[in-house]
Amino acid sequence: MRWDNLTDGPRGPERAGALFGAASVVTRTFDTPEFRGITFHEVRARSVLNRVPGASRMPFEWTVNPYRGCSHACVYCFARKTHGYLDLDTGIGFDSQIVVKTNAPELLRRELASSRWAGAHIAMGTNVDCYQRAEGRYRLMPGIIEALLERANPFSILTKGTLILRDLPLLRRAAAVADVGISVSVGFTDTGLWRTVEPGTPSPAARLAAVRALTDAGIECGVLMAPVIPFLGDSPEQLRATVRAVAESGATSVTPLVLHLRPGAREWFAAWLAAHHPHLVERYERMYAGGSYAPTWYQRQITRQVHELAAEFGIGPSRQGADRRIPVPERPAGPAPAEPVQLSLL
């Protein structure tokens, strides 16, 4: 595997340092039902703050990803391509070969304390899920949240994992001093579709129950309705059922996102589609002939339908709070550290 010179972005002179060396990798397997068939590569990362490319559509500039690869095994996951940087398979390998940055909490605490860090918003769960099954064993997120809490640093979490409820007390403490945004991803409520495209995730009903638990605890939580899957999860009846369930969960907002198929994910999804829905192959080839994204007219149509349903079911917009609610020590201004580049979610 190509561990020694791993980077997330361009490999010019300024990017010559590896994120971790081969000597730092410890490979483990655990013969327990929840981890059967999964291999963990434990690494000591050299950096944990990732800069989002300037061309990204994302509203944030920095991310933290304690894991690479994801046992959720979503057939459409755009992050599959990142496993190729390690010479790991982007199909089954992405689902079962999980890289764990075991020193992520201590590393983040150090990087946040740098005089060059200006307290920018940090997003988590935008590459792979930080509350996937591995988190149940490695427990990296409590230390990460504590590091952010200590600095009153604003952050957001996107997840399909109900394990986030374990950290509810920490999230409540963090939300008292900084702007904390939580979103749960639920693209559809069709259980048959869920079992085939997201086989390693908690059920949509379980995720919406987590939304209810978060909101009942005073943590505002939105739902990213993603992905809306053309011809499989986009009928008016399916959209209505999903938005109704989202509204009943107490979510503060619902944001639709149509399936996009980047290289790496596109090939894996195409193989799944040919095996499970061969009659749709040609329709997908036509719809995605222009690239990774569905046509603009289709995206607008889905967005309009979901927004109309949201209004009907009374889902309001998310509240926008201040980034920080307590003062923190001033630090000399300066450029933020040059760090690995994160792939964009959108």
Characteristics:
346 residues, alpha/beta, 7-stranded mixed beta sheet, 4-stranded mixed beta sheet, 11 helices, 14% strand, disordered N terminus
SSE blueprint and pairings:
Blueprint: E1 26-29, E2 39-43, E3 49-51, E4 62-64, E5 67-68, H1 92-96, E6 97-101, H2 104-112, E7 122-124, H3 134-138, H4 141-150, E8 155-159, H5 168-175, E9 180-185, H6 191-197, H7 204-216, E10 221-228, H8 236-248, E11 254-258, H9 265-276, H10 281-287, H11 296-313
Parallel strand pairs: 2-6, 4-7, 7-8, 8-9, 9-10, 10-11
Antiparallel strand pairs: 1-2, 3-4, 5-6
Largest sheet: 7 strands, mixed
Note the quaternary state here: single chain
Radius of gyration: 20 Å
Percent of residues in beta strands? 5-15%
Along the chain, the helix and strand elements come as EEEEEHEHEHHEHEHHEHEHHH
How many extended strands?
A: 11
Side-by-side strand order of the widest sheet: 3-4-7-8-9-10-11
Structural class: alpha/beta
Q: How would you describe the shape?
A: globular
Number of helices: 11
Mean pLDDT: 86
Describe this structure in words.
The model is unreliable at 1-18 and 317-346 (pLDDT under 50). The protein is built from eleven helices and eleven strands. Helix 2 packs parallel to helix 4 and helix 8 (236-248) packs across helix 11 (296-313). Helix 5 links the parallel strand 8 (155-159) and strand 9 (180-185). The protein is globular, with a radius of gyration of 20 Å. The strands form two sheets. A seven-stranded mixed β-sheet has the order 3-4-7-8-9-10-11. The protein is α/β, with parallel strands linked by helices and 346 residues long. It has helices at 92-96, 104-112, 134-138, 141-150, 168-175, 191-197, 204-216, 236-248, 265-276, 281-287, 296-313, and strands spanning 26-29, 39-43, 49-51, 62-64, 67-68, 97-101, 122-124, 155-159, 180-185, 221-228, 254-258. The longest helix is centred in the last third of the chain and has 18 residues, at 296-313.
